[in-house]
């Protein structure tokens, strides 16, 4: 063996450098002998040289102890670094060969939660993106696909891997996955688990065994997830014609997990917070999230697994499309308008924020240091918006025809965005070259519009401009589908929703034959991910809030009124306008509207959103002033609605808990009402509900209402006494205290909570419950003395040694630092420099902090 063991410096990887591998994989046989600190992994891999790109055998491998290595049964010369194992081409047989190796790894000490690790006594894996290389030597890249057979040896009762079960006996089990796959979809689980079992008959009549595996005590939290899985399977058959392709589909709930869930072939692994649900312990929001994530991971079976990504730059190929699919599914299961508003809220809060700061990157990035840093809102959510725009532009029929062609043409392959778009170009005969820019150009386009009426014609003139982002100074015009409708003065719609296709920097569209000047409803259903500026007065906004037939824009008008009101309160010390309060009250009390919609309309823009809006308008946001204005508006709303709140609260009792759209909509409005009511009734209604609630939505909702009104100490203690044994409910207990902490108390509350016996930095859910909530408590995080910054930086410095992925992700708390005043900027810069100065800082965190500093 040659030992070239000098540590490799982090390298930037470029899309333009993509080259096919020197070797393809045919079959893979793995045998795992599990032991907490000394697991043995025996591999037998059939390699085939790539005639088109011959060369050395290059395998990835990290943190492995190599015990033996053979090629076609013979020992051979090889070189090992801390990241690779190489066998020179000259030392390889001329044709196909079998590579065999044995390595030892230590799952128990793996706190990064990548590769094979242990969580609450069970073994589990996370291989996406590049975790398989911590399990054994392998070409760990998504374009190398193989057929896996896996043997697991352990005394633990449940032993799982991908594909179908082949055979098992005492202390062992064998699995075979007939579908070739990249290593990132490999999974293994071993534990003392209980199965919640069911079955599904596919459209061609095949019976599939379904299981959700959980720890003892969680059996009663599986039924909802199972129903969501079956609904997802039916939906993908009915809507996309996609059938499931194995005899068994397993889901496993794991307590320690960096992300939400993972689509490993036939063996999805879930963060337990994203699959377990029961009325007593989970809120409506959790039920909705579980339903969406189960669907997302299941839908990956076709968009991601059967057809995968050629390289990690193409991540949006599977993620954007799969998010789009899960969004449509959730809309079908619940309410499309409500779902769309929630999507846009999330897009603006996360993706626009990212796109407007130092971490902005194209949906298909062109370079990365650590791919784990690119599982972003841009890749996922903007990626989904691109699919939605494509569908709007080509129409439903061509959209489904393009998808069908994609599934047919690329099944079993690892492909690119170009391959995906070529299917739609073929089906429609369109040139999608300009549209493809959505994948390469970062930044959120600013769209402005002017209106003119003359004779019987109404003209809309749009102008678009995308601001510079890191590495991209000059931007080209994007293709924008702009959905518009026109409304007459009496509220009737004179032009139903019509999609305008904007391709130029500036472009006009004229509508003729109009009897009078209409009011335009623009960017209906949020038809493109842009920031729209439109100079319209409060009266027109109130008119659209009352009359727009497009629910998204109806909501949007309320949101804009709220924003204008808050900005006037912050910058000009104005009192909230009576018209706005009246318009909102009309929505609040309009029984003909969906309660979920009314709740969303009642919601105020977040402090972070207001800070960005002020910054965009050329001002320096003052977090304390934003906080105070928002609190003052909440009080003003409570007083203005005082005469209707108690009755609404009583009427909105949804009765027996059902986590469906109807019930959750009612509860959502009821909790919004309660949070205002608590500001004026000394907390009486909330205390009453807290005592009597039989579901977590109302129990946590009433506690939050109390905390938000500066009360709830006793309730917080009794909540703890009731739920201290339930880790997922305890995450809420931690989170709620930080989320509702007053600005000048937040850091102190966080510091105290990290000393609590139930705080555990090694568990990502618990760490995020505290520090994610601190970052989300805008005024608390940005407290004038910098205490919030320091506390987060301290925690990240400690966490980086344990879990680089979660550390890097939470660094995004600092991504908006250039918005704020000089003092805050310099305090944040100091903390970022302090993180960067930590010896042995991970590659993940180094990349993130470096990019944020810009
Ligand atoms: N593919 C998963 C998300 C995921 C990505 C990375 C992970 O570990 C680094 C884990 C999960 C999904 O989209 O659901
Ligand atoms: Zn995904």
Structural notes for this entry:
This is Aminopeptidase N. Belongs to the peptidase M1 family. Residues 540-853 form the Peptidase M1 alanyl aminopeptidase C-terminal domain. Residues 226-438 form the Peptidase M1 membrane alanine aminopeptidase domain. It is built from 27 helices and 31 strands. The strands form eight sheets. Strands 6-9-4-3-12-15-14 form a seven-stranded mixed sheet, with no helix packed on it. The model has no long low-confidence stretch (mean pLDDT 98). It is of the alpha+beta class and 854 residues long. Helices cover 41% and strands 20% of the residues.
Ligands bound, unique: O-methyl-L-tyrosine, zinc ion
Helix proportion: 40-55%
* Cα gyration radius (Å): 28 Å
Number of helical stretches of at least 4 residues: 27
Count of beta strands: 31
- Strand line-up across the major sheet: 6-9-4-3-12-15-14
Q: Please report which band the strand proportion falls in: under 5%, 5-15%, 15-25%, 25-35%, 35-45% or over 45%.
A: 15-25%
Average pLDDT? 98
């Amino acid at each position: 063996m040659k030992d070239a063991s000098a540590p490799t410096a982090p390298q930037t990887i470029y899309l333009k450098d993509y080259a096919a591998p020197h070797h393809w994989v045919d079959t893979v046989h793995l045998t795992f002998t599990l032991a907490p600190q000394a697991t043995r992994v025996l591999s037998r891999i059939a390699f085939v040289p790539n005639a088109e790109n011959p060369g050395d055998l290059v395998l990835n491998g990290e943190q492995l102890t190599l015990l033996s290595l053979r090629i076609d049964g013979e020992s051979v010369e090889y070189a090992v670094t801390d990241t690779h194992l190489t066998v020179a081409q000259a030392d390889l047989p001329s044709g196909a060969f079998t590579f065999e190796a044995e390595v030892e790894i230590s799952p128990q000490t793996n706190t990064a939660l990548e590769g094979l690790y242990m969580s609450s006594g069970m073994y589990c894996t996370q291989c996406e993106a590049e975790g398989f290389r911590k399990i054994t030597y392998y070409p760990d890249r998504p374009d190398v696909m193989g057929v896996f057979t896996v043997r697991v040896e352990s005394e633990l009762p449940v032993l799982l891997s991908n594909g179908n079960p082949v055979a098992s006996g005492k202390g062992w089990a064998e699995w075979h996955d007939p579908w070739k796959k990249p290593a990132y979809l490999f999974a293994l689980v071993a534990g003392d688990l209980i199965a919640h079992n069911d079955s599904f008959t596919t459209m061609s009549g095949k019976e599939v065994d379904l299981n959700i595996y959980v720890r003892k005590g969680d059996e009663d939290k599986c039924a909802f997830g199972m129903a969501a899985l079956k609904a997802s399977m039916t939906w993908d058959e009915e809507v996309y014609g996609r059938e499931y392709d194995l005899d068994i589909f397993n889901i496993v709930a794991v307590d320690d997990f960096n992300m939400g869930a993972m689509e490993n072939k036939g063996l999805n692994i879930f963060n337990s917070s994203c699959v377990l649900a029961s009325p007593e312990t989970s809120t409506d929001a959790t039920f909705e999230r579980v339903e969406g994530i189960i669907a997302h991971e299941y839908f990956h079976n076709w968009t991601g697994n059967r057809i995968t990504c050629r390289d990690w730059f193409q991540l949006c190929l599977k993620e954007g499309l799969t998010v789009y699919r899960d969004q449509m599914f959730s809309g079908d299961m619940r309410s499309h308008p409500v779902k769309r508003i929630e999507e846009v809220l999330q897009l603006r809060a996360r993706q626009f924020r990212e796109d407007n700061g130092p971490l902005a990157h194209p949906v298909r990035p062109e370079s990365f240091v650590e791919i784990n840093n690119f599982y972003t809102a841009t890749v996922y959510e903007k990626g989904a918006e691109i699919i939605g725009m494509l569908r709007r532009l080509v129409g439903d029929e061509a959209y489904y025809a393009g998808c069908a062609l994609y599934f047919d043409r690329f099944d079993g392959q690892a492909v690119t965005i170009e391959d995906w778009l070529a299917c739609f170009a073929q089906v429609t005969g369109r040139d999608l070259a300009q549209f493809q820019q959505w994948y390469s150009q970062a930044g959120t386009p600013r769209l402005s519009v002017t209106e003119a009426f003359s004779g019987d014609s109404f003209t809309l003139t749009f102008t678009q401009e995308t601001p510079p982002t890191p590495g991209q100074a000059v931007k080209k015009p994007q293709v924008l589908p702009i959905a518009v409708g026109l409304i007459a003065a009496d509220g009737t719609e004179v032009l139903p929703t019509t999609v305008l296709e904007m391709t130029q920097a500036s472009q006009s569209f004229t509508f003729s034959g109009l009897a009078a000047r209409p009011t335009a409803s623009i960017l209906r259903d949020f038809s493109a991910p842009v920031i729209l500026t439109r100079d319209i007065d409060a009266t027109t906004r109130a008119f659209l809030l009352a009359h727009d037939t497009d629910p998204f824009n109806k909501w949007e008008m309320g949101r804009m009124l709220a924003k204008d009101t808050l900005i006037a309160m912050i910058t000009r010390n104005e009192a909230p306008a009576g018209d706005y309060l009246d318009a909102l009250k009309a929505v609040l009390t309009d029984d003909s509207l969906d309660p979920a919609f009314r709740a969303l309309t009642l919601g105020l823009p977040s402090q972070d959103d207001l800070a960005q809006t002020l910054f965009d308008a050329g001002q320096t946001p003052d977090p304390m002033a934003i906080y105070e204005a928002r609190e003052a508006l909440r009080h003003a709303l409570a007083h203005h609605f005082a005469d209707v709140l108690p009755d609404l609260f009583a009427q909105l009792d949804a009765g027996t808990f059902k986590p469906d759209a109807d019930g959750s909509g009612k509860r959502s409005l009821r909790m919004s009402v309660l949070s205002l009511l608590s500001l004026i009734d000394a907390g009486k209604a909330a205390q009453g509900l807290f005592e009597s609630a039989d579901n977590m939505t109302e129990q946590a909702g009433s506690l939050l209402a109390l905390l938000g009104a500066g009360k709830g100490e006793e309730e917080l203690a009794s909540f703890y006494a009731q739920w201290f044994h339930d880790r997922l409910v305890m995450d809420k207990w931690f989170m709620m205290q930080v989320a509702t902490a007053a600005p000048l108390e937040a850091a102190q509350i966080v510091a105290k909570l990290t000393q609590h016996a139930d705080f555990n930095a090694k568990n990502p859910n618990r760490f995020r419950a505290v520090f994610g909530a601190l970052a989300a408590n805008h005024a608390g995080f940005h407290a004038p003395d910098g205490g919030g910054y320091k506390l987060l930086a301290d925690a990240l410095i400690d966490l980086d040694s344990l879990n680089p992925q979660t550390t890097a992700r939470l660094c995004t708390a600092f991504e908006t630092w250039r918005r704020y005043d000089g003092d805050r900027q310099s305090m944040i810069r100091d903390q970022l420099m302090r993180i960067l100065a930590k010896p042995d800082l991970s590659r993940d965190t180094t990349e993130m902090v470096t990019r944020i500093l810009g």
